[in-house]
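Morning F.,

Quick status update on the modeling queue. The single chain you submitted on Monday has been processed. Sequence for confirmation:
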Amino acid sequence: MENLDINPRIIAGVKKAGLKTYESILSLTTQDIQRSTNLSSSDVQVMKTAVAQALVKSPVSALDILHRNCPENLVVTKLTTGCDVMDTALRGGILSQGITEIAGESASGKTQFCLQLCLTVQLPAIQGGLGGGRSSLSYLMVMASMKTGDTRKHVPALGLTWANQVMCRIMLSRTSQQICVPKQVTTSSVTGGGQTCVRELEVIYAPHLPMLKILFIVDEEGIKALT
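Structure tokens below.
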């Protein structure tokens, strides 16, 4: 903080409030910093501008980030869903930063989807995981969803303020379609051989994805997209 070219009074106020890193400054809103430091709005804006300039020495374009020609902290990794078809449609999987909301009606596959992500996060990075989990893992917020007729109504489980912080929203739902899962016999187990409900994953919005829908099933081995 001492290296920033700003009024020492601002630095002293920020440090007194316990904000000692650049990340802590940029992760809070101007209003939150004002409340904890008693600094004015203009002082906080000066601080945020100085921190942003200190972090990025030269301009970085979106194309640079796409091709990873940028500092490592700007690269957003993806977490595999455990299904290659679904990963391809989601351009690599679930974002490892920000909040990804998994919403859906009862028995739509939310729990299975989240449990599968809890498993894939343990995989090494070369296999699409995050090597046992880390602080940048996406937060998964399961929302209550009520369906009346042909319409759905979302009820934010943690309030509207939290819901508005979502970066990516994914909706899961059941369809009326049933398919037969082929029976597979191995030396240690028997899977399939029965009917299962076809479910649908829909991307409601995301900064890196178009609106899309993926049909999938849930069987003994987990989530599987239909091709």
